[in-house]
Amino acid sequence: MQKFRLIKQAKMIKTDDFSSVFNFRKRISTPYLAMHYQPNMQSRARLGLVVGKKTAKLAVSRNYMRRVLREFFRLKQHEICHVDLIIRVQKKFSKGDFVQIKQEFDMLITKLNQRVSASSPNLSVQSGITETPSFTESK
After folding, report:
1. What letter does residue 91 receive in the DSSP assignment?
2. For residues 91 and 31, is the Cβ–Cβ distance under 8 A?
3. How many CA atoms lie within 13 A of 86 on its CB side?
4. Is the pLDDT of residue 4 over 70?
5. Backbone angle region of 29, left / alpha / beta, with phi > 0 → left and psi within -120 to 50 → alpha
6. Which residues neighbour 51 within 8 Å (Cβ) at sequence distance 6 or greater?
7. What's the pTM value of the predicted model, to 2 decimals?
8. Domains, the chain
Protein backbone atom coordinates (compact mmCIF):
# COMPACT_ATOMS: atom_id res chain seq x y z
CA MET A 1 0.00 0.00 0.00
CA GLN A 2 1.23 3.46 -0.92
CA LYS A 3 1.92 5.87 1.93
CA PHE A 4 0.64 9.39 1.48
CA ARG A 5 2.51 11.20 4.21
CA LEU A 6 4.59 14.23 3.34
CA ILE A 7 8.21 13.26 3.82
CA LYS A 8 11.11 15.58 4.58
CA GLN A 9 12.54 15.28 1.05
CA ALA A 10 9.29 16.69 -0.39
CA LYS A 11 9.82 20.06 1.31
CA MET A 12 11.94 22.91 0.00
CA ILE A 13 13.73 24.69 2.82
CA LYS A 14 16.95 26.25 1.51
CA THR A 15 17.07 29.79 0.18
CA ASP A 16 19.02 28.65 -2.89
CA ASP A 17 16.20 26.27 -3.84
CA PHE A 18 13.64 29.06 -3.62
CA SER A 19 15.88 31.46 -5.56
CA SER A 20 16.45 29.00 -8.41
CA VAL A 21 12.70 28.41 -8.80
CA PHE A 22 11.92 32.13 -8.77
CA ASN A 23 14.73 32.77 -11.29
CA PHE A 24 13.36 30.08 -13.63
CA ARG A 25 10.39 32.46 -14.14
CA LYS A 26 7.63 29.96 -14.87
CA ARG A 27 4.39 30.81 -13.11
CA ILE A 28 0.69 29.91 -13.11
CA SER A 29 -1.75 32.17 -11.24
CA THR A 30 -5.27 32.25 -9.88
CA PRO A 31 -6.91 34.96 -7.77
CA TYR A 32 -5.77 33.36 -4.49
CA LEU A 33 -2.62 31.44 -5.45
CA ALA A 34 0.47 31.80 -7.64
CA MET A 35 2.48 28.68 -8.42
CA HIS A 36 6.13 29.05 -9.46
CA TYR A 37 7.76 25.89 -10.78
CA GLN A 38 10.95 24.40 -12.15
CA PRO A 39 11.58 20.79 -13.28
CA ASN A 40 13.94 18.90 -11.00
CA MET A 41 16.14 15.81 -11.25
CA GLN A 42 14.74 14.16 -8.13
CA SER A 43 12.27 11.32 -7.88
CA ARG A 44 9.45 13.47 -6.51
CA ALA A 45 7.88 16.90 -6.51
CA ARG A 46 9.04 19.28 -3.79
CA LEU A 47 6.97 22.01 -2.15
CA GLY A 48 7.80 25.45 -0.84
CA LEU A 49 5.20 27.80 0.62
CA VAL A 50 5.24 31.59 0.84
CA VAL A 51 2.64 33.48 2.86
CA GLY A 52 3.69 37.05 3.45
CA LYS A 53 2.79 39.36 6.30
CA LYS A 54 1.17 41.69 3.77
CA THR A 55 -1.25 38.91 2.88
CA ALA A 56 -2.18 37.99 6.46
CA LYS A 57 -1.01 39.99 9.45
CA LEU A 58 -1.72 37.32 12.08
CA ALA A 59 0.60 34.33 12.33
CA VAL A 60 -2.43 32.15 13.07
CA SER A 61 -3.88 33.00 9.64
CA ARG A 62 -0.59 32.46 7.83
CA ASN A 63 -0.09 29.09 9.53
CA TYR A 64 -3.65 28.02 8.66
CA MET A 65 -3.05 28.84 4.98
CA ARG A 66 0.24 26.91 4.99
CA ARG A 67 -1.39 23.93 6.69
CA VAL A 68 -4.24 23.80 4.15
CA LEU A 69 -1.92 24.07 1.14
CA ARG A 70 0.49 21.48 2.57
CA GLU A 71 -2.43 19.07 2.99
CA PHE A 72 -3.64 19.65 -0.59
CA PHE A 73 -0.10 18.95 -1.82
CA ARG A 74 0.20 15.84 0.34
CA LEU A 75 -2.96 14.38 -1.16
CA LYS A 76 -1.92 15.19 -4.75
CA GLN A 77 1.85 14.59 -4.53
CA HIS A 78 1.64 11.31 -6.46
CA GLU A 79 -0.12 13.03 -9.38
CA ILE A 80 2.39 15.87 -9.78
CA CYS A 81 5.31 15.80 -12.22
CA HIS A 82 8.87 15.99 -10.90
CA VAL A 83 9.08 19.71 -10.23
CA ASP A 84 10.05 22.12 -7.51
CA LEU A 85 6.91 24.09 -6.63
CA ILE A 86 6.57 27.29 -4.72
CA ILE A 87 3.01 28.22 -3.91
CA ARG A 88 2.62 31.87 -3.02
CA VAL A 89 -0.61 33.07 -1.43
CA GLN A 90 -1.74 36.27 -3.17
CA LYS A 91 -4.97 36.88 -1.27
CA LYS A 92 -5.94 35.94 2.28
CA PHE A 93 -8.37 33.05 2.62
CA SER A 94 -10.19 31.54 5.56
CA LYS A 95 -12.23 28.44 6.35
CA GLY A 96 -15.18 29.76 4.32
CA ASP A 97 -13.07 29.80 1.15
CA PHE A 98 -11.87 26.19 1.52
CA VAL A 99 -13.83 24.78 -1.44
CA GLN A 100 -12.70 27.55 -3.79
CA ILE A 101 -9.06 27.18 -2.73
CA LYS A 102 -9.26 23.41 -3.29
CA GLN A 103 -10.67 23.97 -6.80
CA GLU A 104 -7.96 26.51 -7.61
CA PHE A 105 -5.25 24.19 -6.33
CA ASP A 106 -6.58 21.28 -8.42
CA MET A 107 -6.76 23.53 -11.49
CA LEU A 108 -3.17 24.70 -10.93
CA ILE A 109 -1.91 21.11 -10.66
CA THR A 110 -3.74 20.15 -13.86
CA LYS A 111 -2.27 23.12 -15.74
CA LEU A 112 1.17 22.40 -14.30
CA ASN A 113 1.13 18.77 -15.45
CA GLN A 114 -0.03 19.83 -18.93
CA ARG A 115 2.68 22.49 -19.28
CA VAL A 116 5.49 20.32 -17.99
CA SER A 117 4.52 17.27 -20.05
CA ALA A 118 4.09 19.42 -23.19
CA SER A 119 7.47 21.09 -22.79
CA SER A 120 9.42 17.96 -21.86
CA PRO A 121 7.66 14.71 -22.80
CA ASN A 122 10.31 12.60 -21.02
CA LEU A 123 9.24 14.10 -17.69
CA SER A 124 6.15 12.29 -16.47
CA VAL A 125 4.07 11.87 -13.36
CA GLN A 126 5.95 10.25 -10.50
CA SER A 127 4.38 6.83 -10.68
CA GLY A 128 5.59 6.13 -14.21
CA ILE A 129 8.88 7.82 -14.96
CA THR A 130 10.70 5.89 -17.64
CA GLU A 131 13.51 8.11 -18.90
CA THR A 132 15.88 10.73 -17.59
CA PRO A 133 14.17 14.14 -17.62
CA SER A 134 15.33 16.69 -20.17
CA PHE A 135 14.92 20.36 -19.44
CA THR A 136 14.53 22.14 -22.75
CA GLU A 137 11.58 24.31 -21.85
CA SER A 138 11.35 27.61 -23.69
CA LYS A 139 9.89 30.80 -22.32
Report:
1. S
2. yes
3. 23
4. no
5. beta
6. 62, 65, 66, 88, 89
7. 0.80
8. 8-117 (3.30.230.10)
